[in-house]
Amino acid sequence: MGDSSSPENHLEGQGQNVLEREDERVKMRTTNEKVIHIKSRSDGLIEPGQKASKDCSAENHVEKPSLEGRSHMNLDSLANGCATRKLVNRDDDENFVRCAQPNSKIKISGSPGSPPDTIKVKDASHFVNDENNSGDNSVLENSERMYPFKKRKFFYQTSSSTSDSWSHCQGIVDSSSTRVNGTNHGAVIEESSSMADQQVHPASKGCNVKLSIKSFKVPELFIDIPETATIGSLKRTVMEAVTAILGDELHVGILLQGKKVRDDSKTLIQTGISQDDKRHRLGFMLEPRHNRMSSSYNDDPCFLTTGSRQKLSRQSNSLMLQQGSYNVSRERSTVKIENCAEGDLNGVSSLGDTSANNNNMSKCRALVTVPAINMDALAVVPYRRKSGNPDFGQRRIRRPFSVLEVEALVQAVEKLGTGRWRDVKQRAFDNAKHRTYVDLKDKWKTLVHTARISPQQRRGEPVPQELLDRVLAAHAYWSQQQCKHQLKSM
DNA sequence: ATTAGGG
DNA sequence: CCCTAAT
Where is this region: Disordered (predicted)? Predict the structure, then answer.
């Protein structure tokens, strides 16, 4: 029983043609995160200058555990030969949310040495890891952050740390944007660049136009809800409307001086987006993939601005951030939630019941009316629980395990086995609040699966084959143990 | 609260 | 990751 399988060889060449699906995945991520932001957002917003919630700590020591020479892993090596690795994580959950909070701003920009983290050093192996493996950056190269997808930056603000001279904030609703753009523009875009290159291919790598999208705003959101509805249901309805919009596969639309730029093959320079562009000329909008709307504004990015439009179906709605749409059309028993801020031309003045709230809300530009409404009036509503749960049961944001985390997990499991996730958690992820033992268990499950499939089929940041080998070995070993115990008890 | 698995 | 059933 002692000896496990034969020594594995380190297969080189990790499949890396994973980029294909990235696009798709990114979209999905967008959806989720969008929702999250909207929900959790407070008033502050991430400013471009916030450079990333870089983790300051970053004092990662990664020492090679003594288990390296595991050419023939056996019971002992599994159980004892490993030093303990512990992930010390200082941040807690909602990292993104934090970023959106005023205070965090200060914190984030703080000095790199301030983290109150505890760096636990144990024996020969230890390492610090902060949740979004920002620590990885300085240690491992194969982090998912390395993918050349700009998009990603929008989603993983925290990742654009180390080398980025600028960072994006996700498309969250911004509340202070108005100030920046005195006009009714919802988009706050800054661009600076040094263009000179005029290549024809969009993929050309010349000078870069740096764009910093401060926030995506949702001009209007129409909610149809009976006056007798409760605040709770309104809340939920808004949430559903929002998620319905965001939920569809979104794509980004580019607006230049109000006109939608359709030709995706044109280069920025060709399109007229260059260094000398004054901000505000460029706009972005998020829109459903399928514009199956009945009316004519289908094509017109400004449809939201046009007062002529009648009613928008949820799906037809586009979230855009350039045009400010300030309409006053409101139907009876229709609570119109205006998100445009100050510049609000309309007087979403009086409303039935929820009027009070709305007024307050009118201060918040952006669709984020949700949190506002969310105040205190929370009632039990007999609605179905779709996307907008009664409870804020938001799906947690995705947090891909970093290689460092995987290693920690593997090591813990090697020692503890696969049936003690609680202990594994405590042992290796005690400080990673966002990693629950269930998460670890799930991760192990996927790791085992990953280890079994061909490298080409793997996705995400490639996990070193060495680790995968250990996963299989440990899995095999502990599975065996489990069987034995079962047989014994029988 | 944990564990184990399916979704 | 989420959700659940069973501990």
Answer: 1-64
Do residues A140 and A232 share a domain?
Answer: no
Q: Which nucleotide is nearest to A424 (CA to C1')?
A: B2
Residue nearest to nucleotide B3 (CA to C1'): A419
CB contact set of A26 (below 8 Å; sequence gap of 6+): A149, A151, A152, A155
Does A289 have pLDDT greater than 80?
no
A160 and A184 share one domain: no
Residues A247-279 pLDDT 10s? 544 566 777 777 777 777 777 777 777 666 555
CA of A34 to C1' of C4 (A): 28
Identify which of A59-73, A219-233, A354-368, A439-453 has the greatest average pLDDT.
Answer: A439-453
Structural tokens at position A398 = 């995705």
CA of A307 to C1' of C6 (A): 58
Q: Which nucleotide is nearest to A482 (CA to C1')?
A: B4
Range of the domain at A131: 46-168+396-489
SS3 A214: coil
Distance of A445 CA from B6 C1′ (whole Å): 12
Do A427 and A453 fall into the same domain? yes
The nucleotide minimizing the C1' distance to residue A401's CA is C1
User: Could you tell me which residue, A327 or A142, shows the higher pLDDT?
Assistant: A142
CB A421 within 8 A of CB A438: yes
Residues 6+ apart with CB under 8 A from A9: none
Any domain includes A22: no
